[in-house]
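thread: overnight batch results

M.L. [08:02]
morning all. the overnight job finished for the chain we discussed friday. pasting input first so we're all looking at the same thing
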Amino acid sequence: MAFDELRPVVAKLESAIASGPIVPTVTPQEIRSYLASRYDFTTPLALDEVAADVEGMLRTWQVQVTHPRYVGLFNPSVTTESDIEWVVREMGRLTSWKVATAR
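M.L. [08:03]
and the structure it wrote out:
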């Protein structure tokens, strides 16, 4: 995927974060119950499915430090370029994990 193709994806994500809540309204028990019902570690799941689920959990249950109205301390905001840089770096790690030394 080229950078030009990533820009609209990142812009859509930024918009979704900006229109959503800053702080989650979830209890630890709700998270535990969801994880227990979804992941039993006996049945393999597709990477795309798990990645989408983790993204949804982070978007729903995480404090959104990139939200425009977030004023927490010591959490600098990010730019579209740094988001893209992170995606590219992580994709590089995913593609090289089989040949990398143990981390």
